Every structure is written in C-alpha cells, then in structure tokens.
Amino acid sequence: MTGITVIGNHDFVLGFQLAGIHNTFVEENIEPRITTILAEKETDILVLQDEDYKKLSPPLKKRANESVKPIVIAVGSLEEDDLRVRIKKVIGVDLYKK
C-alpha cells in the first residue's frame, strides 16, 4: 500500500514532496499513469491538479469518479459538495453534517 500518490507537473508535485509525500510522478501525459494506478489499487488517495483532471478522456474520468480505492482527488476548483460526496463514499460518514 502506498498511501498518497501525486501526479502532475513539476511545480504541483514539488509542493507535495516538500510536505513529505514521496510517491510522486512528474508527467505531462498523466493518463497512462492514472490507468495503471487505478488498475493496481495499491494507492489509497490519488491527487492530481484540477486542470489535468478536466483533460482526462471521458472513460478514464468516469472510472476515476467511480473509484473507491484509490479515491481520486482533483486539487483546485472542485465544488465543496463534490468533495463532500467523495469523502462520504469512501468513509461512509458525512463529515460536514451538522
């Protein structure tokens, strides 16, 4: 199990490396790496930039959205409700519930 994996351009990945995440990939074409990670299911959380996520092919984007392990998180301008739904799907609890 690798915990958190980050894929993206150098600047995006560097911030996560400085935060102590070592399983990172600097790549321009992220689709092959994402396909591999989704198939292996060894990663718990896959982090990518929202801009890269939007560029994924429709079938891969659908697969990423439906994935429970790894949970795919696009960092950037995702709506709070989308993140809320993903967290609830993974842990089974609505953390935002008051």
In short:
The protein has 98 residues and is an alpha/beta fold. 46% of the residues lie in helices and 21% in strands. Strands 2-1-3-4 form a 4-stranded parallel β-sheet, sandwiched between helices.
Question: Any overview of this molecule?
Answer:
The protein is α/β, with parallel strands linked by helices and 98 residues long. The protein has a single domain (3-91), classed as ATPase, V1 complex, subunit F (Rossmann fold, 3-Layer(aba) Sandwich). Helix content is 46%, strand content 21%. It has 5 helices and 4 strands; from the N terminus they run E-H-E-H-E-H-H-E-H. It has helices at residues 10-18, 31-40, 50-54, 58-66, 80-91, and strands at 3-8, 24-26, 43-49, 71-75. The chain has a 4-stranded parallel β-sheet, sandwiched between helices. The longest helix is centred in the C-terminal third of the chain and has 12 residues, at 80-91. The mean pLDDT is 83.
